[in-house]
Predict the structure.
Amino acid sequence: MSDTADDRIELPEEIYEVLLNVVDAMLRGPAVTVSPTSQTLTTQRATDLLGISRPTLIKAPEQ
C-alpha cells in the first residue's frame, strides 16, 4: 500500500484483511463505521449507528 508514489507502508495481514472487508462493504453501498474496540457507546449512539430503535437494541442480546 502506498501513501505517495515513493512511500510504502507495510501492513500486518490482519489489518490488510480488515481493510479489504471495509472497501468491499463500501463498494456494495452500505455505510461503514470503523472505531476502536475500546470505544464505549451510549444506547442512543448505538441505535443511531445501527438504525434501530432502543427497545430493539435492548432485546437483541436476549435473542
User: Anything to note?
Assistant: Helices lie at 13-28, 43-50, 54-59. The radius of gyration is 17 Å.
